[in-house]
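Attaching the record inline, Q. Sequence:
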Amino acid sequence: MPRPVKDGSLPVGGRTVQVSSVAKPFFPDAGLTKGDLLAYYRDVAEVMLPHLRGRPLNLQRFPNGVHGKGFWQQGAADHFPDWVRACGGRPPRRAGRPGRRHGEDQRRADP
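Structure, as predicted:
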């Protein structure tokens, strides 16, 4: 049984993240909330994060649930903690190769 996520402080990898509105419906047809999604990410993080290390991230967000209006968030918002690294700009396309939406053209090395 997954451990529920509650409003307030959520310990993550030795840091603390503030979360709110965990009861907000995100996937109403399945009865899943923002807290359920946070719990899932927390529970798979140990396996998932090594595959994401050093890669830029953008999110297709639906703040009011999957039936609401969505948008792509491609940059770090002002409220992100200082320890979230942001990479600027779009990587250059390789000569003779078309750009890709995912994969090698968007990878970046860890410092």
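The radius of gyration is 16 Å. Strands lie at 8-12, 15-19, 25-27, 32-33, 59-61, 71-73.

More tomorrow.
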